[in-house]
Specification:
By secondary structure, the protein is α+β, with helices and mostly antiparallel strands. It is built from 14 helices and 16 strands. A hairpin with a 3-residue loop joins strand 12 and strand 13. The protein is elongated and about 85 Å long.
């Protein structure tokens, strides 16, 4: 299909503009990008480039005016993260423009309200895109977050942060994309947990737990990120305590995804497939020496251990008890009864406080049906576990019976 006359003209002008940029001839490059924006006012990248070039040429006032127009346009279209990023650039050029952050929060909140509750006789506008954390904030909460965010540029191929390094801040991507990598001892190298893009945020593990980076994050393209420290977030949460629960819910989802990436049963899945599974699992914390389920009970759930330890045992009568094994982080249990549709053949209790991921029967059946590879692995593993368990129980009770007879 041939290009339209306007598209062909734009491509030609953009080619000239790039040549001028490569030669650092910013004045001529600016003229070409201004021609593009007149030809196509909705070319937001070219409008952004105009602002950048005005700034390079020392025309700060004009650059700020260009950025402010673009900020409002981004906010109206629902591109909140990009609008916030531009807000930070404006303040860097002209700190007196501090009111733009409040204006941005007001504008986004108004659009969000109008997109959900149309006036009588009017159709609803398009719904603003869902952005983790930001989409659930009200006007005042959003204004507080915007005022504390710091902007940072990271070149393609550079690391934003490295696994194991100290750090307790959260990053939000305003443009570009990153790869989230974590070292695997079994593979002797990094594995890709996820690819994150505009609107996504990362590094919440260190923020909530031990102030260490729990993954390496690499810029896969030139990157603009917004950063908020835990100290700043804590200050906001004192006034707006709901902020903590919003972020905590997202943190729990990330924990589940990371565990699934390393669990033998799920590690072969692609990141987008794991993301679909995450919503089915529910985190569950069980105290020390607590029964998770009892032998003979109906199958209700499948479990993956996040941390802690459980003991699997079988009983026959009041005295005869056989320890079948101990399971730890990354191990799973409860699948035999679900797969073979039979009562629990053993009991499971915690030996210490344990964090579990629970998949209820209906969700388990859905996952197994949706992912044949998981079903095949589970069936093979479960048959072997069933054989070993039956053998241990039979041998142990035979020995005990013989000892009693003697």
């Amino acid at each position: 299909m041939s290009k339209s006359p306007m598209a062909s003209e734009k491509a030609l002008i953009k080619s000239r503009a790039q040549k001028y940029l490569s030669k650092r001839n910013y004045k001529k490059a600016l003229g070409e990008f201004q021609r593009i924006t007149k030809l196509d006012p909705m070319d937001l990248r070219s409008r952004l480039r105009v602002g950048d070039l005005l700034q390079k040429l020392g025309r700060a006032g004009e650059a700020v005016a260009q950025y402010k127009q673009l900020t409002r346009h981004y906010a109206k279209e629902g591109f909140l993260i990009q609008a916030i990023s531009l807000n930070k650039i404006i303040l860097r050029i002209d700190p007196s423009q501090e009111e733009i952050g409040k204006e941005l929060a007001d504008l986004y909140a108004q659009i969000g309200i109008s997109s959900q509750i149309p006036a009588k006789g009017q159709k609803a506008e398009k719904k603003l895109p869902e952005i983790p954390l930001f989409s659930e904030l009200n006007r005042d909460e959003l204004h507080q977050v915007v005022s504390h965010l710091k902007a940072q540029h990271v070149a393609r191929g550079s690391l934003v942060c490295k696994e194991g390094d100290p750090g307790d801040s959260i990053y939000i991507i305003s443009s570009g994309k990153v790869g989230v990598l974590k070292y695997s001892k079994s593979k002797q190298g990094d594995i890709l947990l996820a690819t994150l893009r505009e609107g996504d945020f990362f590094d919440e593990f260190g923020f909530f737990s031990d102030q260490k980076r729990h993954a390496t994050v690499k810029a896969l393209a030139d990157l603009e990120v917004l950063e908020i420290s835990r100290n700043d977030f804590d200050e906001i949460a004192k006034v707006h305590p709901r902020m903590r629960s919003i972020l905590l819910n997202f943190y729990k989802k990330r924990i589940i995804d990371t565990l699934l990436a390393f669990a033998p049963l799920f590690r072969h899945l692609q990141p987008q497939e794991r993301a679909q599974l995450v919503s089915h699992f529910k985190p569950r914390r069980v105290g020390e020496n607590r029964l998770i389920f009892n032998q003979g009970s109906p199958p209700t759930s499948f479990f993956v251990i996040k941390s802690g330890e459980v003991e699997v045992f079988a009983s026959k009568g009041a005295e005869q008890r056989v320890i079948l094994g101990c399971l730890r982080g990354g191990d799973f249990f409860g699948e035999i009864s679900l797969i073979f549709n039979r009562p629990r053949m053993a009991s499971v209790r915690t030996t210490k406080t344990t964090e579990l991921l629970e998949l209820e029967k209906a969700d388990f059946d859905h996952v197994v049906a949706a992912y044949p590879s998981i079903k095949g692995t589970l069936e093979v593993f479960s048959r072997k576990r069933l054989e070993v368990t039956s053998h241990i129980i039979s041998s142990s009770w035979t020995k005990k019976a013989t000892a009693t007879m003697v």
